[in-house]
Amino acid sequence: MTWRTDPVLTGGRRSSGTHRLGVAAVAFAFWVTMAGTTAPTALYPLYGERFGFSPMTVTVIFAVYAMGVVAGLLVFGRVSDQVGRRPVLVAATLLAAGAAGVFLAADSLGALLTARVMSGFAAALVTGAATAALTELLPPGGRTPAPMVALGANMGGLACGTLLAGVLADGMAAPLRSPWVVMLVLSVIGLVGVAVTPETAAHRSALTLRPQPLRIPVEIRADFLRAAMAAGAGFAVLGVLTAVSGLFLGTVLHEPGHALAGGVVFTAFACTALGQLTVRRFRPATALPTACAGLIVAAALIATAMATGTLAPLLIGAAANGLATGIALGHGIGSIAARSAPEHRGATVSTFFALLYSLLAVPAIGVGVLIRATSLRPAGEVFSGVVALLALVVLLSLVRTRGPGRPDVSGGDARP
Description:
It is built from 15 helices and no strands. By secondary structure, the chain is mainly α. The longest helix has about 30 residues. The chain is globular, with a radius of gyration of 21 Å. It starts with 6 loop residues before the first helix and ends in a 15-residue tail after the last helix.
């Protein structure tokens, strides 16, 4: 099949109806692909019962997804610039539909791992291609900024996927089948939508698949690493919540409802999106310290939930962690955009997200090892302490380097 650029969307006069449909199709495909990545969260306890695996295995299944995203970002991050947005979006939604189909037919641990790898690649492909397509469909100065639409589709999908799966698992007769039937249907709708959406990339080059080198520009290295450590600490908590919240609710709180497990993760990701939207309200010099303080508070609340076996601190801690993570993430991306050279900006952003997704995966496995060596509660308490310590290290580093008389070097426009 030959993919052609349609002048309706890439130049000349635009058809407003086609334009709106294109935005809706790309945003929906982005949303449903990301929703499929978190849908298994509420179902992990059921899979554990069905296939007889341990909490350690659950964390490995989750980590396989996150590392798939990292590999996909490094290898496929530039593909949509080379072959166009539409074929990459088609490939991403096709992988999302395939993953839902594998989950639907899963009869072994190997099938679950295969589906998670497919989900990881789908997320890696759709993130860059959909964000770029929305930027081309929604130029600067419009009533609806492209970054806001991309953020809503991305974080909205992550938040809604687990909640939708949990509600369906609780309300339908086949809890390990019904959610995937719905996800499969939604993915096919997304696939059809992007397949008929005209191409938006006017300039393309030959396809070259090779890993992108990690790049941290010298001029922003210190602030880059601080932002990555803070946002990474928050991502680590998001990963652990995604992997074991259902286990905690079922075994410690004796709340087996899958919708509740989905609600915890929904709260965390929804507040992450909210944190990214509110970062503009902070001066650059105060955004990261605020995020670090929020991460420390969130870690204390989650540790309290583990120690006391109560739900309220877990929900509040998930919300606080999401807000803090969103602020740190928004600050990091803003700093990269403002202070890195344009020719290296894409590689720097890819490096930033590769580090974050690595921190999404590795700590989850570490918690699984701790659970196996001790039990869920002490493992959660130790993990919360490590997160709080990491955030405190970043906070103290900021205080030391930005003391009285020192200039703000965090990037962006400082506000009076």
